[in-house]
């Protein structure tokens, strides 16, 4: 059983601090507040009023076809049936297809979506289904081709899965070979400490890759397995079946490009006027769409009536592009601005679950939704958490770090601990010593100047500088001796830091599920998924879970 405490968020974020205040001016950029129960009722009623182009049955059939057979079970089948209901709503989250699930925040997004769907289904008394959208159309391989692990020596290591491809191929187009991924997994396991759970996760992950499969399918199998009991519905943005449904909306996005671009840029300016940094940087001729050419995802730019890729290899008039989008939608892909719009076109969305970055850039889009005859759904911030295994708990107790707040400032805590191990203040003693050196040199150089000349002063200054340098060296060496004397304790501090603040980054942004699985198993995940109190957390807080 996990022990849970709530503490202040481990970082400062001006935008999120404002978003969590219902009376903040920033809420003018959103249609609903995620913190008011009546807004969920209002949003559900608004979804019912919408004249939808895509029926629930259509989108449910596409997801069912994508998930069969290897992403299928009874819970998934039940949620597909729920989605087909004319009164159904969706809580949706999404992420790039990170290797082995990517950072922990991917898992937190899915948990938040599942729990929010469950809560609102009970409150609204109608079907609410959790959906996870894989951004398989993304092309930034370097963002997803690696994991970070903590070795036996408590070093945070980046382990990449190398694919020889230098073009901007979209992620779902990459294929993973069985032998290559199994060898890589063996190498990954070698980097991790030996535990009773190592063979469990290694066997399970290998079972997902017994035949060649796409990069995003590998990701989907992991997410399906982790959330099998909850029946999480999964869809890849690059799925051909989904693309067919998207054809008319791609056409509309092309035709209304100018209006979308204008309102988004205007909103960006308004955000800056309130003193915030713009969430997205724009180029002057952005089309906010990509074109797929030989599996290469290329941004489209607009110059007058002409749409073209920046390399000039593809060039069409707007009318020609609209016609092409209607007949070949698989050649098109959304960018950060148009993806949320496409998502709303496809799904009867009650709420979108996102991280801080997503909450920010969604703030650009309220008027863009209106231009497309849509409405922005509730934008719900995902949960934030810190996972602490038993071994790290032992280390924390060793240093008296039993409260949640004490783990936020580990560097200061470590410095204070080391100072307590030494009976004197070494830095104070050396500062006094160097002050005395200064005091001794000044009258000496003054006397020598009177009787010998100014060259003696210059020589004395150089000599004093060397003495001071030796004193600094002496101080550094003493600190080194102190560290050597207390090396075991310092190693334990490194162990704590590497698990809770790997590479001085938030744990949820650096570590994935495998290091946690390797050290603690997965019982904690089952319990976490059932803890609906995660949705009731105070604004500006995060959870710390003692596993």
Structural overview:
Helix 9 runs antiparallel to helix 11. With about 550 residues, the protein is an alpha/beta fold. The mean pLDDT is about 90. Helix content is about 50%, strand content about 15%. The longest helix is centred in the last third of the chain and has 32 residues. Helix 5 links the parallel strand 2 and strand 3. The strands form five sheets. The protein has a five-stranded parallel β-sheet. Strands 12-11-10-9-13 form a five-stranded antiparallel β-sheet. The protein contains 22 helices and 17 strands.
Secondary-structure topology with pairs:
Elements: E1 3-8, H1 14-19, H2 37-49, H3 56-67, H4 74-84, E2 89-95, H5 104-124, E3 128-134, E4 146-150, E5 156-160, E6 175-176, H6 178-191, H7 198-207, E7 213-214, H8 215-226, E8 233-236, H9 240-255, H10 257-273, E9 286-293, E10 296-303, E11 306-309, E12 315-317, H11 318-327, E13 332-334, H12 338-346, E14 349-354, H13 356-362, H14 366-371, E15 378-381, E16 385-388, H15 390-398, H16 410-420, H17 426-451, H18 454-485, H19 487-500, H20 507-510, H21 513-520, H22 523-529, E17 541-546
Parallel strand pairs: 2-3, 2-14, 3-8, 14-15, 16-17
Antiparallel strand pairs: 1-17, 4-5, 6-7, 9-10, 9-13, 10-11, 11-12
> Structural class of the secondary elements?
alpha/beta
User: Termini, distance in Å?
Assistant: 7 Å
Number of DSSP strands? 17
Biggest pleated sheet: 5 strands, parallel
Strand order within the widest beta sheet: 8-3-2-14-15
Low-confidence region ranges: none
Which whole number gives the mean pLDDT? Answer: 92
Q: Gyration radius, to the nearest Å?
A: 29 Å
What would the principal axes of the Cα set say about the shape? Answer: globular
Please tally the helical runs, counting DSSP H or I stretches of 4 or more residues: 22
Percent range for β-strand residues: 15-25%
Please estimate the helix content.
40-55%
